[in-house]
Amino acid sequence: MHQDRRWEEEQPRSPWRWVAGVVLLGALGIGGFYGYRALQSHDGLLAELPGMRQTLDAAARRVGALEEKLLASSEQWSSLAAAVGELKGNLRASTAMLRRQNDRIGEDTRRRLREEMGLQTKALQARLKDLEAQVASEQARVSQLEQTVASARRQTSQEVARLEQDRVGDRAHLSAQVNRLDRQMEGGRSDLAAFARTFDRRRIDFEAGLNHAKEVAPGVNLTVTHTDIGRQRYNGWVFLMPDRRTLWIQGRGLQQPLAFYSGDDGKPREVVITRVTKYSVIGHVNMPAAPASVARVKPGPAPGS
Q1: Whole-angstrom distance, CA of residue 82 vs CA of residue 248
Q2: Percent of residues in the chain assigned helix, strand, coil, to nearest 5
Q3: Which of 3, 56, 115, 216 has a beta carbon 3.0–4.6 Å from 206's, enabling a disulfide?
Q4: What is the pTM of this model?
């Protein structure tokens, strides 16, 4: 009787308990569904947490068993409520553990990403330093090449200027030589014209020592002060009597006649050197064949011309 009364007292409230149980089971099912979907989006997390899936499967099986028991007998409501509370506690613990593991996995992932990014950054910085060193080396090489090119240009400009000066100097020297040769040829033509007027010549050979005055012909005294064997040239002077005139000789070579005029006949005389030795010169004097007066010496070409 007591049990019947208790059943009658509890019977009106049993629909509400059924409704509460169904709502609770629906909430647990929805939470498990979304938890499972959330876990499916993290394949790595599921791979690391196989035990949690088994726990959820076991919880689902237990919920199914409890639902069968609830449908079978309302007397088992208290045990069902306790089981549901335990299940809720397990679900909360599992959810908290999943959150902690998710946070840990996220932190590990971020840490690995930071480490990988740090390694990549270090590699990029090292590569950048190598590139900067290569660029600095190339810049130094280019600067050295520019200096070398500038130095070569300066040297080339200086060489061109020097060659231009030498060319100008050589041209001036050549012009002077040409002018001198022209004067000599003009003098030679004059001498040839004079010689053409007369063929009566006599030759007086001589050898004059160094630094000794020698009368190489009547009224003609030759003094040699220097000889150049390599170039076959000599220096000195010719002293003419009786007017005491001096003809200076400077760097005259072989077969270069020193012509002068003396006497009233207007016929030329000339001293010709044919050989230069270390201590003397050898040559001859061309004189008119007929005796000539030496009372006056006519002006002739300048000495050394």
Answers
A1: 152
A2: 60, 20, 15
A3: 216
A4: 0.33
